[in-house]
Design a protein that fits this description.
single chain, 199 residues, six-stranded mixed β-sheet, 13 strands, 27% helix, globular
């Protein structure tokens, strides 16, 4: 399977044009958006419509979008699914989503959700698990600023403890395009122009 992942679009038309070109050329099976597709929610309906044109989309909100507003807008599109706090099987993969945040190293609400869904998370056999978040994973190339690691420890601990193979995040623009490992999990900041991943 093939996906196109992107993050931190922030209403950038040139970046959206690049994403459209990649969709046309690569024909991914699905699209991942890891949040911050607007600038503080500006013209959110327009950008949601543009994202919906890309294909089958799994999306979380970033710190620039309101959770309820994004959830409501996603209901208008059959091909766009709001993934915050959800687990979905899609063909040969399983997607998990947790949006918002970006400024905290610990997310107790997420940790409670992960504990509550422990049995379900372990029930998908050999299917590849993809974790979509906005905040970066702690102690990686994706969360480093001036030699400090500012990412979410809850997310890094989660992908070490659970059988998650791929993680997607953003928030720190300087690290766009970088990837790293957290244990056996390969993590990406695909940036606004996106990255093709083959599973």
């Amino acid at each position: 399977m093939k996906c196109l992942a992107f993050v931190d679009l922030h209403g950038n038309k040139k970046a959206m044009d690049v994403l459209k070109e990649k969709v046309e050329k690569e024909k991914p099976d699905f699209i991942i958006c890891a949040g911050d597709f607007t600038v503080f929610g500006d013209r959110i309906e327009k950008w949601m419509k543009e994202i919906s044109k890309l294909g089958r989309v799994f999306l979380v909100h970033g710190n620039h979008e309101d959770e309820r507003e994004v959830a409501h807008l996603c209901e208008h599109y059959d091909n766009v699914e709001f993934m915050h706090g959800k687990i979905r099987e899609f063909k040969e993969v399983v997607l998990l989503g947790w949006g918002g945040g970006g400024f905290s190293q610990k997310d107790l609400e997420f940790e409670a959700w992960a504990k509550e869904n422990n049995s379900l998370l372990r029930s998908f056999g050999n299917k590849k698990k993809l974790f979509i978040v906005h905040a970066p994973f702690h102690n990686t190339a994706l969360d480093e600023i001036d030699r400090d690691h500012v990412g979410c420890k809850s997310f890094s601990r989660f992908v070490k403890d659970y059988p998650v193979e791929f993680g997607f995040c953003g928030h720190i623009h300087e690290n766009a395009g970088k990837d790293d490992n957290v244990g056996r999990c390969l993590v990406f900041n695909p940036g606004p122009k996106g990255k093709i991943i083959i599973f």
